[in-house]
Each structure stands twice: as structure tokens, then as C-alpha cells.
């Protein structure tokens, strides 16, 4: 039944999109593509965020497939009624996006770019098949994205599962994965991030066209973004980075596509759409508030330059955009303000957050983040050469959190320099003037993100994905500026770089699958995740306290995903620091803990009443039989004082 509800929910999301596309009529291909990519995620996430608002306003927690479907029915019905009331769409004046500077597109580069895009699609299709043989993967995915998602739908509430700082970030990815896990097998949910990579590629294609590129350059840029390792490998996990970057790019596309089309300003619906997409991006990755603010400034500049009443135009356009942002980001801002004392918790930007009186996370020290960069460079100045030396750092080059790859190194820095030259020099031709504003906005946003990334001193490559997704479209006008063999050569270099990185991706995924499924037959969940099999057979209602690594939070849910897992970092710290002291047994009784998972030496009884009996353990590597450095043990909590005899809350 839950599967039927989920399918109906998804169908309504696409039905609402179809209604809007039908009203667009003869709009340009890029405009239709923009709406087609933007509306499904917007319609998917709006119902759970509305239920979150209802809970925060005092309504009983109701996050479940049934209520979500009911809200979706109402939402799509209101959309249908609004479209009928507005009547036929008014055709906007303005040139369609296209190669403003490049003239007629030669056939060879288009064919080459299209072939590269198809190859990228087939490669990720194959990677998706291999992913579906296993289970969701990724440290952050196991540590908090999926546990939070399951907790939300277990309790119906968006309240934080754990007050450890990493569990208090906005949780759009957890909403997404948690809803899918209500109806779909884990193996299918493992591939659920790939649609966001497709949305990202679509957004890059559209931005490339709006910035003055032709089909060849825009297709090449779209294919290229999928081969950048920090995007490619991240899309094979259920992390939030790719979705956030893609939604951010779609917000920029919505604004830049329409900035010249209406004498009276960008249409209201477009401004609200752009704001909503930026708000959704915040709900995946709060750091994207920076480029979202740059887009807001661009909207204000555009409004002032188009209107004879600049102040009124700026208030209108800026207000509509800000409204969209706040409404879609609002549930997380309100929740954290009420629950944790700061709308942006756990982010701390002194002295601003101090001046505003916002609470700070006691368990994170952002000033200590400078050292993280040395996983990828030996000294800070090496970041200037990072795209060309990243392969020097084995095991830190191509993965979900790092790696720019051959396509980026070959074309993107050159495209950025060329865009800067075009923006700064006088533009006499009308076509060049038309694309100057989009290029300037993309360039400015990318540079601001990089500058703040440098100043904030937490220099991890994935934290500038927002800059990358806005810089890659500039490859399209770079190609459009070239002519003859130069144009074919540029596309050829980009295509070769894409093929190289697709080969890296395909070979690594094939080797991983071969190791897991061919060499060691790790098809079962407990074998895939390397935990004691007894965790999968715990009785209903079991509550497991995880004293092992955070990444075990999701795995301990068991094969049925019905185990309750507690990962309270304060309790864990108390246990590890004091052993049986500090009132730990009382905590366990209050929390209803029936089992404890540990990685390390055997545990002594907690006190005269509460003890630990081993239920299942793993002391050897299942692949080669080598003893593990830390024995993985599931303990049953027994309480001799509970009812006069030595018993436990569990039947096992």
C-alpha cells in the first residue's frame, strides 16, 4: 500500500509539471527545459515542508506517506485552478537563448558533444545498475542522512534526532531518502541521487545556452559536469552536495533566462520559482546561501536597470525572490531557532552570530578546520594548482568529497578567464551585450564563493561545488567564440577529457562491484556493511545504543530497518569516559535501551544490577579471515533489579 501511495505522490509531482509545461505552449526549448527540471523537485519537497510548518505551529507530528499524498493532491489541485484562472500564457518578448556570439553551429562539434553526453548517460546507467546490487553508501549517509530520514518517518516529526551538531543541519536529503525508504527496497534507494545529477546537467546546459553558447558547447558543459569527480562520485552516494548544487544552478537559470524578457520586470512566478529553488538548495546545503545572495543582488541590479522607477522595481523583484527563499528554507530556520537557539545552528560566523545572540554548537570548533585542507594539498598556495596536481594524492583525489578531473583542468579555468575578458571589455554588438549580464552574474557568483571559501578557512573541495556548477557553463560561450578547427578542437579536447574521467569512474565502480559481489559474494546486508548478523534478527521494539563509529547509525537499523538506534553523543561520551560511573544505568533505563553495539574490548557490567551479555560478534574480516583490530559486538542489556531477577527488556 505504501508503494502505491509513493507512486501516486511521484505521479502528481510530474502531473503538476505537465500542467505548467502545457501552459507554456510555444516557449523556447531552454525555457521549457528549465521548468521541466525545476518543478518536480519543488512539488516533491513542498508537501513535507508544509507539514513541518504545521508541526512547528503546534499541530501533532504527521510526517507520513498518507498525509503527504493528501497535501500533494491539494497542492496540485490549487496549481491547476491557478493556471485555469490565468488563462492562456502571454508570450514574452525577447530572443531565445542561443549562440549569440558564435553564429551558425558547425555539425562536427555538435555530433561530438552529443556523443559525449550519451556516453556519460550510459556510463551512469551502468553505475546505477551496479549500485542497485548493493546498499546505500557513504559516511555522511550512514552517520546521519539516512538515520535522520528514518527517524522523521518513525516519529512523524522533524525535530532533531540527536543534538550532535552534524544532526542539526537542514535535512532535505533526509526527507527525500526517508520517504523513499518507506516504500522502496534499500537497493533501489541506493541509486536515488542520480536524478539530481541529471537535474544538474540540465541546469548547466541551460545556463550555457543563456550565457551565449551553442548546442555543442552547452552539451559539452552538461556532460563535463557529470565527469568532475566531486560531482560524479558524490552522485553515487546519498549525500546532499549534488542536489544542492543542481537546485542552485536551476535558480540561476530561471532568473537569467528571463532577465531581459519583460519590460516591467521578471515575471512573478519566475521570481518565486527561483527563490523556492534557492531555498530548497539551502535545505540541502546551507553554505549555498552565499551564491543565493549573489543571485539576489543580480535581481536587484537587473530590476534597477530595466525600470524607470528603480526603487519600486527592486522592492518588488527582491521581495518576491526573498519570499520564495524564506518559505522553502523556513522550516529548518524556525526549527533550529526554537529548538537550538539559532536559525542557522550549528553555523557560527563571529562576530555576526554573536552580535545577534545566536547560540553556538558546543561540540564543533570551526577554528580548527584549517588543517582539513592538508588531505589534498601540502600548503595553501597549492590550491592555485590543485586541478593539475590533485592526482598526486592517492586515495584523496577522486572521491565524493574531492577531485576536479581532466575536464575541469582542461577547459574551465580558460573559460573563466575568457568570460572575465568579455565582461570587462566594451561590448558593441547587441548579441554580445545580451549575454554579458548572464556571464557577469555567473562569474561573480563563482568568484564570491571561492573567495569566502578561502577566507572561512575550511578548504574542502566539495565546499566550492556551488562555484563549480556556475563556472562550468562558461565553457559553452568559450566554444561559441571559437571558429572552424579551433571550435572542433576545443570540443574534442573536452570530449577526450570527459571520456578519460568516465573511464576512471567506470573502472573504479567495476572494481568495487567485483570485490564486493564477485570475489566475496557480499550480497546480504550484514555482509555488505560488515556487522554481526544478529543485528538483523532482533525482536520488534529493540533499541540499540551505538557506541561504535557514527557510520554505524544506519547499519544498526537492521535488515528490516525497524530497530531503534540511539546515538546521543553526550551519553556516548559519558560511557566512554567513565565506564560504569556517572549514572549511566539510569540513562539506559530511561531511554529503554535493550542492546548496545561496541567496537573494541569486552565491556564490564555497568553496575551491580545492569550487565551486558554478548548476543553476536564479528572478530575476523569476512573476506580474508584476518583478525579485526576492534571486535564488533552486539550486547544485550540485562537488569537484575528491574523485577527481582536477571532479565532484559528484550527476548534475546
Automatic annotation (TrEMBL):
Tell me the keywords, alphabetical order: Cell membrane, Glycosyltransferase, Membrane, Transferase, Transmembrane, Transmembrane helix
Bilayer-crossing regions: 64-83, 117-135, 188-207, 219-236, 242-259, 266-284, 290-308, 320-338, 404-424, 436-456, 462-480, 487-506
**GO cellular component annotations, sorted alphabetically?**
plasma membrane
Instruction: Give GO BP annotations, semicolon-separated.
Output: lipopolysaccharide biosynthetic process
Entry-linked InterPro entries: LipidA_mod_glycosyltrf_83
Classify the protein's membrane topology as the record does: Multi-pass membrane protein
Q: Which GO terms describe its molecular function?
A: pentosyltransferase activity
Q: What's this protein's name?
A: Glycosyltransferase RgtA/B/C/D-like domain-containing protein
Report the superkingdom from the record. Bacteria
Lyase found in the keyword field: no
Task: Give compartment(s).
Answer: Cell membrane
